[in-house]
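Annex B.
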Amino acid sequence: MDVYVVGGAVRDALLGREAKDGDRDWVVVGATPEQMAARGFIPVGGDFPVFLHPRSKEEYALARTERKSGRGYKGFTFYTGADVSLEDDLRRRDLTVNAIAQAPDGRLVDPLGGRGDLRDRVLRHVGQAFAEDPVRLLRLARFAARFPDFSIAPETMDLARRLVEEGEVDALVSERVWREMAKGLACDEPGRMFQVLHETGALPRIMPGFVYDPSTLESDLACAARRGLGLAPRFALACRQADDPGAIGRHVRAPGECVDYARLLPAVLDALGAQPGNGAEPAAWLDLMERCDALRKPERFMDLIAAADCVRAVDVDAWRRRVDAIRSVDAGAIARAEQGRPERIKPALREARMLALRAS
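tRNA CCA-pyrophosphorylase: predicted structure tokens.
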């Protein structure tokens, strides 16, 4: 049997970039599942045969072809006979730049012109089957964010719009949307992912309630990327103009942390935009920190402050001092001083925190 590295690892090597984790995949030509098992490979595939190498644990998939048999990204039947060639397997992939294989001796197999598209910085679909799988639209948007210097071939955008117009995109499950969304948000220019989803008409279908405003979205997310903010603050920035950002997170089954950040960031921005004056600032600061549970979750609060700083100028260091100040107050000592009288503990604790804030 013949074994080739395919996909992202080959693409990134040709671009002179370090491959992302999980992009080193192998395709096996001329083998059967029984032969793979006899060599010690561990079967893990569901819809088609995929195996883990017995030592490296990298994924090895049998070369396959696919045929549309139903709606959505699961509506395919696969054939993995030993007669499926490497070229057959490459033709069922999404983009030409991801359809290049490399043999163990370094020889490249590129029947679809992927190297030319890498040279010309173009994201181009492999074939008309691109319009049969809605996940490919998500991947196109994600790769546009990862490779912002690449254009998208007009005919590829036309096929992506067909996925929306013909309702294929409606069959996407939330978990798959989030998986690609999270990868795109981690890129250097996450805003471009949303731009592609908007231009294809997919955005309101997969993220109902999302407000696309390129004048703020792209700059907010570019700032978050430059400053190395994590996934949760980036997602919160992306959703911040929606009427109910938390609902968007719940719709795409985002992790609870991301939903919380999305829900809290608008409140932080509103509070930072208010100017209480007349010496009332410490009370307003404390109200905001209590609302965001900064005492128990100080790093989350500082993440929200850092995200807010991508929208309007914020003195991040001052907020760090304020968080440290209220956390330095010994609540236990105050409770003991009030001799366990609950009605007096809360106001005494608040006053002590106010004093700490004024001194910070």
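The longest strand covers residues 2-6. The mean pLDDT is 90. Further annotation is deferred to the next reporting cycle.
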